[in-house]
Amino acid sequence: MRFAINGNKRQDGHLDHIERLVSAFVAADHQVVMARPFLDYLAGRLGPRFALGVIPMELSEKPRADIAVSIGGDGAFLKTARWVADGGEPVAGINTGHLGFLSAFTFDRPEEIRSCLLEGRFDVDRRTLLEVSWDADPVGGTPRRQSVTALNEVAITRADTASMVRLPTRVNGCESLTYSGDGLIISTPTGSTAYNLSVGGPILDPSLGGFVVSPVAAHSLNIRPVVFGDTAVIEVLCEGRAPALRLAVDGKAVSIPTGTRVTVRKAPYTLSIVQNPGHCFSDTLLNKLGLGGLV
């Protein structure tokens, strides 16, 4: 089996666990590929012998592994998801961060990690991704269509200005919605518990086929979050007094000029997330968010 491992560079309290996990993979004659920045970080902390038997790989290359492993928080998980992209590898998250909503494991139970991953005793959830496209505007060049995928959400917000933005929005070609305020979030069911939740949007079960469109600091009491089916094509025209707005796809932000049209639709492939056997979404809401627990 081939494992692809990535993570963040804040692992000082977990280095021994990581070393033992990687050693277990190698000792069992599995191939281990590791994102080069993460491998360089670990080798610098654990010594160069750690890298023996581990294949370094750039994040710009596709690992083509059987399982991808993310070590860190939700940010590391999203970065690992971008790394494997359309490769089809299930992603197993080991949470060493704060919340770790997307991760099934922690190093508090290392034997569970090794047995589940080495023996293949895990369930897989297939999660919908967003395909986000817009016309990039390079300085001195010809605009070209840029396209990326998102597991959580795309957010279109005002940049470094106090002026509100105006976002006329078409759904399946119907021009009936205009959002005015600080911005707009379009999230997947997976992302409904992320930025969407913080602005009062609803939580969607990940198995549902839908997108949530939620305003950020709406300038009207009539504007509310709306759930659309995941076959919808959503087009947002970015208007405002400032020359640019901010487009953030799973937290990775770029500046886009006013007048840009952003198109959001369901991506042609899904992301597989590793879960413990018998996992329930309601358990995640209770354990990670405390939702529905006793006061």
User: What is the number of independent domains?
Assistant: 2
CATH topology of the largest domain: Tumour Suppressor Smad4
Proportion of beta-strand residues: 35-45%
Radius of gyration: 20 Å
CATH class assignment of the largest domain: Mainly Beta
**Count, helices:** 6
Mean pLDDT: 93
**What's the story with the biggest beta sheet?**
7 strands, antiparallel
Order of helices and strands: EHEHEEHEEHEEEEEEHEEEEEEEH
Oligomer: single chain
- CATH homologous superfamily designation of the largest domain: Probable inorganic polyphosphate/atp-NAD kinase, domain 2
Q: Structural class given helices, strands, pairing?
A: alpha+beta
The end-to-end distance, rounded to whole angstroms, is 45 Å
Q: What fraction, in percent, of the residue positions are helical?
A: 10-25%
Which regions have little confidence, pLDDT < 50, spanning 5+ residues? none
The number of strands is 19
